[in-house]
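Usage

Read records sequentially. Each one opens with the input sequence:
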Amino acid sequence: MLRFRAIGRWNEDAVHVRWTSDTRPSIAKIEQAIEASWKQAQRPGVQLFDGPMCRLEALSVSPSSLDLAVSRTSYKVFVGTNMYNPQFGDEFGNEALANPIGLSTSVLSRDGFVLLGKRNERVAYYPNRIHPFAGAAEPADPLNLFDEVRRELFEELGFRTRDIAELYCGGIAEDRSLRQPEIIFHCHSNRTRAEIATQLLGDEHWAVWSEKNSADAIAESLKQPKAFTPIAIATLLLFGRAHFGDEWFSVQSKTFL
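and closes with the structure output:
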């Protein structure tokens, strides 16, 4: 279900992004599939926009830094490769996929609950599942992924600077079925669970899911994997690692790797 490409704890000054050229090859079979998939994805009730995205080109990981090289791609290319045709990665290599950078964030409330969102039925994939507060990195130069996360938290929860006590990156995971790199963040908020739930603003989620910040409670939630998206599971696992240690993470993650 999951592949972890990076595991650690990096603050804002330890995550570095540089722009490079797009190396995705132009292959006729894939380009045709992108056009066909985009037409197929257009259906009533699903909102699609071919917005710009950031493609992960290279990754360097160390305990002290996380270094990413990125190029530009778009949502249409993502739909036609990672979402609808991830098998192209086996046929032509992973570089043939769009591989846009996703951003997923758990929120720890001031009163001790870890919060994710409940997706609505209108989203393009994994509708009606529990998922982190998430989005995609949008191209900017310079690109600050922490600013992108703060933007998403503002758009979905109305968070402003005063509402965020701490924000850090816990790793990078891939849903093996999508092969999309998802950078996972953890936000400690100055708001309570009730305050956060009442300020839910985003179109993607219709409600807030919460669980007590305890090793046993989160482990129990993970026993219902079909309620979550794979990236939500990865987010809870990395949250648990940060709060309960490597041994907890090792035991709980075995089922999902």
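Summary fields computed downstream for this record:
- The CA atoms of residues 38 and 76 lie 6 Å apart.
- The chain has one domain: 2-256.
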